[in-house]
Amino acid sequence: MMRHLLKKIVGIFVLVTAMNMMITFPANADVEDFSDVINRFSRDFAIPAYTQFNEMSEKAMQSIDQLCRQPSKEAKATTQSAFSDLVASWSIVEAIRFGPIRDKNRFEKIFFWPDPRSRGLRQVQRKLAEMEEDTVSVPLKFEGMSVAVQGLPALEFLLYGTGNETLTSGIRSGARCEFAAAISRNIFQISGDVLGAWTVDGGYADYLSRASEENSDFQNNSEVMQSILKSGSELLLLAANSKLGSSVRNSVEKAKPKRAPFWRSNLTILNLSGNVHSVVQMHERMQLETLVSTEDQSVADQLLFEASRVQKTLKKLESKASPWFEKLETSNAHQLLQYVQIPMNSIEQALSVSYPELLGLKLGFNSLDGD
Q: Are residues 146 and 159 in the same domain?
């Protein structure tokens, strides 16, 4: 009896195994799931964003060169306007936190932040003092130098920080303007290198579309999607908790205005608004909502709704011409800045939790863990 039962069980197992072997799955099913969305990320979001950043960095470089050649209040105003456009374009590409921008410390060279102990600022000030003391002007090269003196925060200090009035005073502007011009050329060079890495034949855009077991970074399209969603999620975490939260804090009395990026140029809100807009733009151009069922469309609707709440609040704050310092010292403005962190965190949750769950992805740890 037992032998007959065992024989029957083995027979069933063999039959099931044979049936499973007969079942065929579509080749590269994973590629079919996300390939269109990944291609749209590269073609419709990443490449246009890097193109604009490259164009704005060239505009800033040209305006600074003009300021150095013919110092004047008008030239300085034009340069500061170009810097604002540059920050706005950077605020969009900040959402792309992987790929060529991470090679050779490019990201940090452009945006060395946060700098809680002002170590980067002190390095910029020391380098400026050295250049002002030198009697012979030598072209500034950043090879082997700290990333803190090469990018947007350093350039902001030179254009808006202590002593910036010398930029319009002829010969006295030499070292400071030369330093600013060198940084602008550096940013333009890096932005061009990154754009080229994305657009060249066989470059990073193609690399993302060729996820496979032979690909050292992405074995399948699910891993590419994880990196894209994680990138947007990280930016929202950084914007809500570090850029805004660490500066606004719990009360007007405890606020730390200087912990926010671009406080000297009063472009903090521009940067925050651009960060949120970048995630919305990425979501729309990728057409992420097409990946989820009709029943699950609420995740896309919620993301866009929360983003509109953020943008309306930031626009209201930006319409007041008061500097960043005064906003943090005003009870009403401070409350709005505290409030705006809530919908920003909701957007982050949509990218790090809701979408991954619906798409069967696991985002895992992000690069901000432990910061």
A: yes
